[in-house]
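Predict structure. Chain length: 440.
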Amino acid sequence: MPTTHQQVTFRGRLPAGFAALVVGVLTACGPSEHGDLPSPPATLAELAPPTMSLRVATYNTSLNDDAPGGLIRRLQGDDVHAGKIAAVLQHVRPDIVLLNEFDYDADHRAADLFQQRFLNRGQYGQSPIDYPHRYLAPVNTGLPSGLDIDSDGHTDGPGDAWGFGRHAGQYGMLLLSRFPLDATAVRTFQNLRWSSLPGARQPRQPGASKDWYSSDIWSQLRLSSKSHWDVPIETPLGRLHVLASHPTPPVFDGPEKRNALRNFDEIRLWVEYLNNTQDAWLTDDQGRQGGLPEQTSFVLLGDQNADPVDGGSIEHAIVQLLSHPRVLDYPAPRSTQGRIAAERAGGSNLTQQGDPDEDTGNFGPRSGNLRVDYVLPSRQFRVVNSGVFWPAPEQIGADWVTVSDHRLVWLDLQAENAPQRASSAGVAHGGDPTTAQTQY
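Prediction complete.
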């Protein structure tokens, strides 16, 4: 079980005694492992100073293992990979963070070990960080379908799972929060069928008039390669719906583009959700129908496996979300090392159209570096700081980030109507929040 100590860090000047008051409010709620607690006795939003900010992040950690239980066994030891991921989190210190590619197990043993043995212990000179609230749930990756989804003549391979994976739970998700979750209101779309999405982009045989999937497989195939979550969190800025996902990479397929098309439609599910579609097809695993009500505050997190202009995704796959009227239009988080890494890698990086300062994935010369990891808040917020944590070789953390081919993306959010004050703009090189200048 995670520690019951509740560490709360607020950014900005606080009235005397405010931090102690908030800690008391949270402590009165008791510890939460999966968010299954009643609402706090007073809302944090009522207690928060008007200028406080909330740090939200997403991070593809690559903490996955090809063997069932492999991550658990690694975390029982002194796993260097896990230690460096923990060091990044301890250095950036997000209030809320989604971890992609963190293997799920039904007993939540890997999550327990990562929190107890790595996050709650200082790594590489960093201070421990405690997340008393978390959400994790089953995903489709590695979950057997009993169907020959990849048309290789077998039904038990990793490509035959509802989402590609060598064992159930591989490439899962873990949401960590310093603030309480409302488990009774969580919505998941793990079981939603791809064919139920209006206008679903059904893959077709190249040069033929027939579909790639048989009608039997198509009618059963799930849309989400992992899952889509809506997790409400009670934050000092009010109730925040975290929309979490990790669509399939738009590659590793053939000319039928089945993965690219699925990636597009996995992203489009969020578009329909933000449109507050009320049609019966949009029914979650809990049996509740419809999308996210208007005026609801949210932040969408995750490795979406789609770059706005480069890479193998279908055109406009991520743009359909970036341009949604409910999503805040703000300058993309940046680092200076993204450009340097792209220049050093060469290859397809040299012909890409996107700004390499915005890259979040370090994929080498063949695929090219891309912007694929996103923190997308609703228009109820404004961004006062942002960055892609990608330190220069001489900076702290440069060795930590090499254990994953993705970089952590973080934002500092304030309420849209919070008082503004002038400050120097810009984020320090490396996307390091400890050296960044505040943007107002």
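Summary: The CA atoms of residues 179 and 235 lie 6 Å apart.
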